[in-house]
Every structure is written in structure tokens, then in C-alpha cells.
Amino acid sequence: MPLDLAKIIERVNATGPPRIELIKRGPKGDRLGVFASSFNPPTIAHVQLIQRAAEAFSLDEILALAGKTNADKLDYECSLEDRLAMLTLTFADEPRVSIGLSSHAFYVDMIDALELAYPAQTDLHFIVGFDTFERVLDAKDRYTRRYCREFRGRTEALEHLFARSRFIVAGRAGAGFHSVRLLVEREPAVPPDRVIYLDFPADLGELSATEVRKRRRAVRPITGLVPATVEEYIQEHGLYAT
Description:
Blueprint: H1 5-11, E1 20-24, E2 31-36, H2 44-56, E3 61-67, H3 80-90, E4 97-102, H4 107-117, E5 123-129, H5 130-137, H6 154-164, E6 166-170, H7 177-185, E7 195-198, H8 202-205, H9 209-217, H10 228-237
Parallel strand pairs: 2-3, 2-5, 3-4, 5-6, 6-7
Antiparallel strand pairs: 1-4
Helix pairs in contact: 3-10
């Protein structure tokens, strides 16, 4: 039976308590990787990052997690239903990858929802890029007041997050292991052993969703930037063309 993505989206309430709706469930295991993204659209870089993190850190299951809301962006070039459809196409044949929809955008809130959806012994690893990791640390304290869970301040929020999860941080051009280490050294609330570095080739990092959208607007090919099934979906639905 085809997924009714519209009903799934409707069930996930961004104004209530944090929750995650699982759309596709992979194998169960103690070591869970969570890759949260807008998937606008899903790209080869997303696929490679998930696969490399899973192999490098022996993850049993990887949850590709789209969001009902975004911390910094209000509007997208295509609907959440389209993005979820492309996400299901991307990982349809990947048994280790689960797919979910999160009601809340912030990792500290996702923790609560994940603890409801997964067993207590789950060893949780968030998979992020360098830029996202910088936003998680929130040096300018832009986000604390926006979290669903209340904290006395940014430091308490970070302590809560890193006590319950590890972060796998993928490098990008100009931001490798030493850049990640410097960020951690500047933040006393983050235990160094809770942050793991993943080397990620610069050429893969350039295969971004932004580049896909840019090429579509310029009527240029996107072959090789997105999975073939996603490219077909984008073409059939006329996405990102204007």
C-alpha cells in the first residue's frame, strides 16, 4: 500500500511535545545514527555521508530524519511531502536506513522524541556537518529560548544534549579535524569524547542540495548529484525549475 505522506505530515504536530513518526524502519540495534536534514533534495552527498558514518562507526541503524520545521529557514522550494517522497525513493533499497519525520528542529528536543521511539540502551549518534555542529554549539546563544524543553541557559542545554548523545562531525573544505577540535576545546560543556570526527572528501561535499537547485534554475543537468530515482522524480514533478 502506498504511503499517505500527507496524513503522516498532518499527524506530526510542531506545536506539541517533540515526537518522531517513523515512515520506514530498518533493523534494530543498540548503535543508532541519526542524520537530520531538510533533504531539499536528497543528494549523493547525503547518501555517502550516511554510508561512511555507518561503516566507520559500526552503526546498526541510521535514521534519515526530515523535519516539520527548521531552525533557520521558513520556506522551501518544494513541499515537505515531495521531500519525504524523494527521501523514501533514495533509501528504498537500503535496509539499514530508517526514515522519519521530526516535529521539532532542535537536537535537544529530538532527544526526547528519540527516547520515546527507541529503547533506553540505545547508543545515539547524531551525524552532522561542520556548519551544523557550529550551530549546535550556539556560541551566540541564539536558540536556547526556542527549545521546547526549558533550560536555565545554553550551558545546561549542551550538557543535557551531550550527556545523552554523541556527535559524528564530518569535515568540509577548510574545516577538518583540527577545526572540530578547536570548537570542542572552546566549549567546556562538551566532553571531548562525545565528539567524533569523520573525514569526508571535499569533492563529495560539493555535491550539495544548493547546487542541485542552482542547476535546475539554470536548466543544467543534475545527473550525478542526486540518486537516479530522485532525478526522475524532480523531472516528472518539475521541481526547482523556477
